[in-house]
Design a protein that fits this description.
Blueprint: E1 4-9, E2 14-21, E3 24-31, H1 36-51, E4 60-66, H2 70-87, E5 91-95, H3 96-108, E6 112-118, E7 124-131, E8 137-146, H4 148-154, E9 161-165, H5 168-171, E10 181-184, H6 192-204, H7 223-226
Parallel strand pairs: 1-4, 4-5, 6-9, 9-10
Antiparallel strand pairs: 1-2, 2-3, 6-7, 7-8
Helix pairs in contact: 1-2, 3-6
């Protein structure tokens, strides 16, 4: 039986939806920072119609769990939860940083990827990944939010060559001072077509959660509270 997974991501400026049916991936993607809520559901309908299946026939619903913009992550998980609840589907949260690593492999075959998303406030969302022979990704540096100068100060040199993906590199040129051998990439944003590939592995491992248990990963959970008077 072929695996069927729908993936939704609105965690960054890019809005994307992808549908995996067996070995075929259907996808839609558009950079539309302020129109995620208008774009997502029509994209979902288009893909389901194109593949000739319904939500109820899916095995799971994947979503970009972050890190990314607070509003974007909330929109994505909210829409995904609504669809999954209505169709009684398990959910799979996929890292936006890992999705960009998968995108770089899809496009170039690179197996060592340094991902940096502009997190605003003088920081980046950062992680490094190494692709293993079984097709999974080893987290070389764990996901975190960090100031570029702090990252430069603590990063250790190695003998590997790293592909740089994400918006953080252009937002913070000082990342070029990292003691790493870096190669440029055209991958700026995560995309749902790469999330469904990662989600297929997670589903095979039984790594799903119920709708009510699905949650975002902000990495900077306290920022929204600190903006409110009296909150620390």
């Amino acid at each position: 039986m072929s695996v069927k997974i729908l993936a939704i991501d609105t965690a960054t400026e890019n809005c994307s939806v992808a549908l995996l049916v067996g070995d075929t991936v259907y996808s839609r993607s558009e950079v539309a920072p302020r129109d995620h809520t208008k774009k997502v559901l029509p994209m979902v309908d288009e893909l389901l119609n194109e593949a000739g299946i319904t939500l109820a026939e899916l095995d799971a619903l994947a979503f970009g769990r972050g890190p990314g913009s607070f509003t974007g992550v909330r929109i994505g998980i909210g829409i995904a939860q609504g669809l999954a609840f209505g169709a009684d589907l398990p959910m799979i949260g996929i890292s936006t940083l890992a999705a960009m690593a998968q995108a770089q492999f899809r496009l170039t075959g690179e197996t060592h990827v340094a991902a940096a998303i502009d997190a605003r406030m003088g920081e980046v969302y950062w992680a490094r990944y190494q692709r293993l022979e079984n097709g999974t990704w080893h987290t070389f540096d764990s996901e975190r939010v960090i100031a570029p100068e702090a990252l430069v100060a603590e990063c250790q040199a190695d003998s590997l060559s790293w592909s740089s993906v994400g918006t953080g590199w252009s937002a913070y040129p000082e990342l070029a001072k990292l003691p790493l051998t870096l190669t440029e990439s055209a991958v700026l944003y995560p995309d749902a077509q790469d999330m469904v590939v990662l989600a297929k592995y997670e589903l095979a491992q039984g790594n799903t959660v119920a709708v009510e248990a699905s949650s975002p990963v902000y990495l900077r959970d306290n920022v929204a509270w600190k903006k409110l008077p009296g909150r620390e």
